[in-house]
């Protein structure tokens, strides 16, 4: 997978010395994500036992829930895949995205303020089943090392891994992706009606 390969490349800092910043970045991202939980040790236990932890939104980050059909309309894909993950990585500038294959949804992690600052757009997006999730909402967040789609379990995973703590999707990039998906879905509906 493109994301995973890039994430595991060691960096040479000096002759003969290899530094693995990915491990450090993942650990920092893990601590940052867990800092949102009332009981970080309980959330860490959920990650160990269930591979996913429910974390509250609206403090450090929020999420935009994207229906899989909208993402597939833009990418031309048929379901979770390395190609869709790579597309989202590029389209969202490396911002983190969680894929929930069972629920047929993607979650773009965005700044905590997005549900309030983009509330008018968010109201318009609801007709496409897109929602800005913030305060009062919990999100099932997979462990930071779960970065590939498992066809056997259909477990949630990081479609685009969090590159480092506090690195989020730019709201404008998410809005552009939604607009592109809406356009493609409307084109598909028009073709069905005329065909």
Number of domains: 1
Helix content percent band: 40-55%
The count of β-strands is: 9
Radius of gyration, taken over Cα atoms and rounded to an integer in Å: 17 Å
Biggest beta-sheet profile: 5 strands, antiparallel
First CA to last CA: what distance? 37 Å
How many helices? The count is 8
- The portion of residues forming beta strands comes to 15-25%
Mean of all residue-level pLDDT scores = 89
Write up this protein.
It is built from 8 helices and 9 strands. With 195 residues, it is an alpha+beta fold. Mean pLDDT is 89; it is low at 1-11. It has one domain. The longest helix is centred in the last third of the chain and has 24 residues, at 171-194. The strands form 3 sheets. Strands 7-4-6-5-9 form a 5-stranded antiparallel sheet. A two-stranded antiparallel ribbon has the order 1-2. Strands 3-8 form a two-stranded antiparallel sheet. Helix 4 (68-75) crosses helix 8.
